[in-house]
Amino acid sequence: MMTRREWLRRTLGVAGILALDPRAVWAEAGKLNLITRTIPSTGERLPIVGLGSSATFSQVARTEDVTALRAVLGRMAELGGTVLDTAPAYGASEEVAGRIAQELGIAKQLFWATKLNVARWGGTADPAAARRQLETSSRRIGKPVIDLIQVHNMGDIRTQLPILREYKEKGRVHYIGVTTTFESQYAELTQTMRNEPIDFIGTDYAIDDRHAEETILPLARDRGIAVLVYAPFGRTRLWNRVGGRKLPDWAGEFDAASWAQFFLKYVASHPAVTAITPATSRPTNMADNMGGAMGRLPDAAMKKRMIELVEGLPAA
Predict the structure, then answer these.
(1) CA separation for the pair 285, 13 (Å, rounded)
(2) Distance from C-alpha of 216 to C-alpha of 202, rounded to nearest angstrom
(3) Which of 38, 160, 264, 268 has its CA 20 to 30 A from that of 246?
(4) 16, 134, 249 from 166: Cα distances, Å
(5) Domain membership of residue 62 as a residue range
(6) How many structural domains compose the chain?
(7) Would you say residue 316 lies in a domain?
(8) DSSP character for 186?
(9) Model confidence over 181-234: pLDDT tens digits?
(10) pLDDT averaged over the chain?
(11) Is 245 helix (H, G, I), strand (E, B) or coil?
């Protein structure tokens, strides 16, 4: 099994250098712009690639040395990224990210997306506990108005979504929504999208896991709901599939200089996607990911070619 770090080390050539420093891409092409997308409910624009704080970010956040996370957040801000997705359920991620962002002086420029869920799986939520969790998130993030709070994994929507609506009406949160990455909850997700006045959803979507293209993304467009995409690399699944394979030369036709950018640009090419938040604890990966937010995106014919390539690879 090859890690992303090992792949980058083996393939570091001209394309690798461009992948690790998107500013070099700008200098090389002289015309690549940062891609942004509009939040339908307000018209606010967000860079299409941001940062998630689960997985390896969460693992490092639990340690005493969070130097790498400081570099990751600084790198994202330096390259124009703003969207930071976190959750109280991600261990120390929310607390550590909030502290680092305030120390770096970038807390106000970030778009903070956090989550609410005090309900056990399939259980009911205690309203008082939900409000305590929201107040804790607010203190950690250090902003008077949190940009986005979503009910995590569809936890007790009947109880927790009205609480978020209450916070929005009071001006404590700008946007509200719901999330899930579990297939068993997709039906409830789409039902909520149809019946509730929400601004955002969050769900999984990748080039080898295109379920969202069938109903979720078209419905989001129809309902004017913004979409955060999680797990655009299939967590580690896509890295395992590409192994040590060379990126095809034709990836340059849509300004992809690495496999990360290849995968991100596929996801970004869907017009319903507002922002993608891959998690990482390495500044080099953060820079590589931000390269996926620059330049051209694949058209329908190219996307078909991309799918055919990935489907021809061994399953992870």
Answers:
(1) 16
(2) 10
(3) 268
(4) 48, 12, 51
(5) 4-311
(6) 1
(7) no
(8) H
(9) 999 999 999 999 999 999 999 999 999 999 999 999 999 999 999 999 999 999
(10) 91
(11) coil
